[in-house]
# Entry
Amino acid sequence: MTIDVLIFGPAASAAGSDRLRVRFADGESPSAGEVLAALAREHPDVGFALGGARLAVNQAFAAAETRIVAGDEVALIALVGGG
Amino acid sequence: MTIDVLIFGPAASAAGSDRLRVRFADGESPSAGEVLAALAREHPDVGFALGGARLAVNQAFAAAETRIVAGDEVALIALVGGG
Amino acid sequence: MTVLARIVGGAVTPACEAGVFARGEGIGAAVRFEGIVRRMEGEREIVALDYQTYDPMAERRLKELAGEIAARHGLRGIAAIHGRGRVAVGEVSFVLWVAAAHRAEALAAVEEFIDRLKRDVPIWKIPVWK
Amino acid sequence: MTVLARIVGGAVTPACEAGVFARGEGIGAAVRFEGIVRRMEGEREIVALDYQTYDPMAERRLKELAGEIAARHGLRGIAAIHGRGRVAVGEVSFVLWVAAAHRAEALAAVEEFIDRLKRDVPIWKIPVWK
# Structure
């Protein structure tokens, strides 16, 4: 299973892209926490953005244990700075 | 020497007047603190307004030891409530 | 840096504020505080507040206070406008406008200004009961 | 009680605020906070900030946050308007308006809203360097 994680702001600038792909074994349904760990492992260029980062799944903040299934919209919410 | 102390707000409402007279021996030049004490003694109807009250002499807050002389404009600044 | 303080007859209206709130390039946060007369004063209903001011000391103290707060918080601008006389329920009795580089000092300045206003400026309010 | 939250294209202009800030009899204090883009970002000069929003989550979170803050502080009204896309130096990127019975809760609500905005709402700003 591959998951495309939407990224924004400084993370997107650093990655030069608006999404990052992470890979899991087929049939696996990773948790939000596991996706964050995979991002850190597979995409060190956005490591600076991962302290305090949260995942949104289908446009809502997800707890670390939330399972992600095919078709979910997954986004990295990190380094926000409204105002 | 008599001093007319200008009063305002709740103190003026309670006294039914816009000034209160306090008396000192002729030739005496009382301090602001002495005027406050005289107000408390001679005008118990405004006693409720004297906690934390200050005198203004010639439109500026006066220290307790400031001497008051004939012709000074003296005002009781108590229970203010702007805003 | 603009420091403005003024006492106006009656309520503070939009016209009183015309041209008061300057813009400047270092300003990152601007706060406008508005005090409005409420119908209930404790348990009793009022129709207005009569604001009594000791003139000209009230306006001078207002201005001194604005200058002090501006200096202490490093503001880029401050303006305080207070009503005198009758201000009806629903009308604006007081407007404070503060501009600063960042929001922290702007909000702290508003808070401190109003605290000091309620201690140090010779303005009184007298309820006009219904 | 009015709770309003909205994300608009570009800077927040006076037209975006038209009709937003209701009056009500219990309101004794109203605060309007305005965030403005400054020329200097640290030591470097910018011409604008590009605000990126994750839609529609950003507007929904903004609205949820407004509702939470209104409930916690017992507000009489709250409105938050945030810009999206390019906001030039000197333009307004964010407006928050809060109405309450007393100033203490109005100011506390403004402070808490902005703290939370900077943690919990998916909006990012990207400097456009000169």
In short: Residues 47 and 72 of chain D are 38 Å apart (CA to CA). Chain D touches chain B at residues 103 (CB under 8 Å). The beta strands of chain D are 2-9, 29-36, 40-41, 44-53, 77-88, 92-100, 123-129. The radius of gyration of chain D is 15 Å.
